[in-house]
Every structure is written in structure tokens, then in C-alpha cells.
Design goal:
The chain contains 10 helices and 14 strands. By secondary structure, it is an alpha/beta fold. The chain starts with 11 loop residues before the first helix and ends with a helix.
């Protein structure tokens, strides 16, 4: 799943694509990657200690711009992971660039997958989520010498001169998501909410606590049932967890998932339970229907980096921190909110941005 908290993860086609070293866009969700051959010697002039890489956007100077994207998740999940790839493809088409993309990359294969991209002379390696942090050492290797690196950040990723980090605050967007849900729950007289996610990991535990705290800011007596299904993409597990929560009487559910999001949301729709999106704006979606869009899409953050690359201003060795109430993203939207609900949510987001609301303290106080 996510930028900051990694908002979250078999075909021969990919192997054929990589082995041919084709520079045309090639999509796959294959979990295995070819072993990279020995890196080619680097041009000493290509070394950088941060700052703006020369030659942007054609950093390696081969006459074309190629962006390589690696994702740990399903790049056809209609949500968080797909947004990253969709953004890259839309921007590349506009600029006449090429995208090489690969989804469902195992964390253990991240380093080899990154080397394989660099062998194809990409100008940028873009990681779809920080689960692929093990790829970062390739940025120091000769094979990736003339390559920019875009990395969604987390607390455990060290800034180096060779990479750009992009991060947001999980407690901010998830607290606002809970606040938005709380506004609807209060108007409907509801007190029970649910949260269905994958593994019980730091990022999911943090998200659940912040969501609960946000709800309780509006409905102090509210309860939140959290279910860890163990898998962000397993639809069967997501539906089982969702049904169990519906049976317990929840009226709002947050399917904080990857590829399993729609399966959970459709079941919620069928039972009159309100839903939220994990990262993208889907207020216009009708199957499934969503009531609140929580926007922390990695694609929105990535687009800003691609725009800087196109303008020859992209810097390595820096970190961009996206702040709720300050930047366009992250943010939260009530899809069919009343004027009063929308105004209250807008004011809440502004208070977070101005630091009038201490999100860390609020989550600690109300999220346990």
C-alpha cells in the first residue's frame, strides 16, 4: 500500500521481454526476474554526489528517454499500484517517452530486477513502493551510473546522493479518512466501523490506529473492528473478512487493500455498508461504489518527479515530504458529502496542515 507506510505487492512474457532487452514498454506481474549479467564499466564522468543529473531527461544520452518501473504489487489492481504505472504511461505518452514496467516483483528479487532495467539503458528507475528498497544498492553500481532513482520513502530508507525520496505521513491522511467517515457515521447515527487489510505489519497497524482516532474525534463512542487477512491481494480472504465484519453490524468499512479492494467493496455495497478507497479517487466509480476517496496515490507523487525530470530539474539526494493541508496530496474527499460535511472536512485538513492539530498525539490518544 502507501508512499510513507507502503501503502502495501507467471508468465514467460516478461522473461522474453527482458532477455530481448526490448526498449518498448513491457508489462508483467511475473514474480521472477532474469539474473543480471555482470555490470558494464561505468563512465567516470557519470558519477554524482547528488544534485541535478546532467542531460535530463535523456540522462544516458542515447537519444531517447526510457523510464523503468518496478512494483511489488499487482499493476492491474485498479488502485494504489496501478496508479503508479498509469501515471507513468500517461506522462510518457505525452512526452514521447518509453515505459518499461514490471509488477509483482518479489522483494528478494528487487536488486536483480533493478540491474536488469539499467542494462536496458533506462534513464530512471522508479520503485512503486518501499518494499523494494533492496534494489537501491544498484544505484551505486556501474550498470546504473547514468540513471536517476525515484524511491517512495519509509522511516527505514537511508537517503543517499544517488536517489530521490518521496514520502508522506500515514497518520495525517488516515486520521483525515477516519474524520470523514466519522462525519457520515454521526449523521447516520452509526457507531461501528470496520478495517480490513493484509498482513499485520507496522504500516497496517499504524493506518488502523489513525483511522480509529479520526472516527473518534467525531463519534467518541465509536468502535473499530480490524481484521488482518494476511494478504492485500487475496479476494477470497478479503470477502471472508468483510462478511464477518458485516455480520457484526459495522456500517462503514475501509478495505485497506491492494488487488482485493474491489471484492471487499462490492460485498459492502451489497449490504449497504459505506466504503473508502485506499489511495485513489474513485468517487465516479459505480461498480463498486465508494463513499469516501482517500487520496495518497503514488502516481500523484510520481507525476511531480516526472515533471521535474522533463524540465531538467530533478535532483538526487533530496527528499520531498508531501503534507496534508499544504500540498495537493494527500487529501480526502467525501464523494457525495453534504455542504456541512465538506466544510468540516476542509477545515480539519487545513488544521492539520497548519499544525493546529497534532496528528501524532491524536492517534496516540484516540487510536489505541
Amino acid at each position: 500500500m502507501a508512499a510513507y507506510y507502503r501503502r502495501g505487492r507467471a508468465t514467460a512474457a516478461l522473461t522474453a521481454c527482458l532477455s530481448a532487452l526490448a526498449l518498448a514498454g513491457c508489462a508483467s506481474n511475473d514474480a521472477t526476474a532474469p539474473q543480471a549479467s555482470a555490470p558494464a564499466p561505468a563512465d567516470a564522468s557519470a558519477k554524482t554526489e547528488g544534485g541535478v543529473l546532467p542531460g535530463q531527461p535523456d540522462i544516458n544520452g542515447d537519444g531517447k528517454v526510457v523510464i523503468g518501473v518496478l512494483s511489488p504489487g499487482d499493476i492491474n489492481d485498479k488502485g494504489y499500484y496501478q496508479s503508479f504505472v498509469d501515471t507513468a504511461e500517461a506522462f510518457a505518452k505525452e512526452k514521447g517517452w518509453t515505459i518499461i514496467k514490471r509488477g509483482s516483483v518479489n522483494t528478494s528479487d528487487a536488486l536483480n530486477a533493478a540491474r536488469a532495467l539499467c542494462q536496458q539503458k533506462v534513464d530512471m528507475v522508479a520503485l512503486g513502493a518501499s518494499e523494494l528498497r533492496d534494489a537501491i544498492p544498484a544505484s551505486e553500481e556501474p550498470v546504473c551510473a547514468k540513471t536517476a532513482w525515484y524511491v517512495p520513502s519509509a522511516d527505514n530508507i537511508l537517503q543517499t546522493p544517488k536517489i530521490m525520496l518521496s514520502t508522506d505521513r500515514a497518520d495525517q491522511s488516515m486520521l483525515a479518512a477516519g474524520y470523514a467517515a466519522g462525519l457520515i457515521m454521526k449523521d447516520n447515527g452509526d457507531t461501528k466501523a470496520g478495517f480490513v487489510t493484509g498482513p499485520e505489519a507496522d504500516f497496517t497497524v499504524t493506518a488502523s490506529a489513525a483511522f480509529k482516532a479520526g472516527i473518534r474525534l467525531v463519534v467518541p463512542e465509536a468502535t473499530l473492528t480490524t481484521t488482518y487477512s494476511g494478504d492485500l491481494n487475496d479476494s477470497a480472504k478479503a470477502k471472508e473478512a468483510t462478511q464477518a465484519q458485516i455480520s457484526q453490524g459495522i456500517k462503514v468499512i475501509y478495505p485497506y487493500l491492494g488487488g482485493a479492494t474491489d471484492a471487499s467493496a462490492e460485498l459492502a455495497n451489497a449490504n449497504g455498508v459505506l466504503t473508502l478507497t485506499p489511495g485513489t479517487d474513485r468517487c465516479d466509480s459505480t461498480k463498486p461504489k465508494f463513499d469516501i476517496s482517500v487520496l495518497f496515490s503514488p502516481g500523484d507523487y510520481f507525476k511531480a518527479a516526472l515533471e521535474e525530470l522533463a524540465a531538467a530539474k530533478l535532483q538526487m539526494g533530496v527528499e520531498k515530504v508531501w503534507t496534508l493541508g499544504v500540498d495537493p496530496f494527500p487529501t480526502v474527499r467525501i464523494c457525495n458529502g453534504t455542504p456541512e460535511q465538506n466544510e468540516k472536512l476542509k477545515a480539519f485538513i487545513a488544521d492539520v496542515g497548519s499544525k493546529k492539530i497534532d496528528t501524532t498525539e491524536t492517534v496516540k490518544r484516540l487510536g489505541s
